[in-house]
Amino acid sequence: MDCKQAVSLMHDYLDGDASAHEKLELQNHLQGCAECRMKFKELEQTDMLLYAIRHTAPTASDELTARIMNALPQPKKQMAWLKWIKKHPAITAAALFLVFMFFGTLNFWSQDSQLIVRGTDLDQVVIKGDTVIVPADKSIAGDLTVENGKAQVYGSVNGNVTVIDGSLYQASTAHISGQVKSIDQAMDWVWYKISNLFSDVAYR
Asked: In the 8-state DSSP scheme, what is residue 122?
């Protein structure tokens, strides 16, 4: 805890609004910071003086009390969400990352129309325009992913076939040993990208 946070907590502490955890944090800080201890004593004395004026000085008018109260510096009240963000920086950073990732990926999804083909055995495929063909006499050892195009499988794919924002034709002669995925919606595409991102990070 720094001195700025400690001063803010002093006001809450004296007003009786500080939680048990905040009280403990403030006490720990005051033990090691002489400047804040002095500041706290000044605030405490001011608070006691005001209490005495209100409860033991019958000659003090309400107007005088109001003037004294208005002359005191007002503590800056932090918004509840700002306090929560300061107390949970890791969760906040992760949430912001996911938000930026979502909108950034969604933007790319809406703009990107170029054919993209990924796999481990791409010399076995034939590409004609926006169509990716696995001939009947060819076999792909691994996964095949086609983005923004058409996939036509006549041969064998020993892995998964994923088509993103496109179409898949699977002939009767085709054999796909893994899963067949067709992703056409933005949300599915974003989830697919995020899953792949975390998979890549995990394997590095």
From this structure: G
Summarize pLDDT for 86-121 with one digit per residue, the tens.
676 777 777 777 776 666 655 555 555 788 899 888
- Pairing type for strands 126-128 and 131-134 reads antiparallel
Pairing of strands 156-157, 139-140: parallel
Helix (H) / strand (E) element for 128: namely strand 126-128
| Type of residue numbered 185 | Q
CB atoms within 10 A of CB 101: 14
Spatial CB neighbours of 105, under 8 Å, sequence gap ≥ 6: 189, 190, 193, 194
The pLDDT, as a whole number, for residue 136 is 93
- Other beta carbons within 10 Å of 163: 22
Q: If you count them, how many residues does the chain have?
A: 204
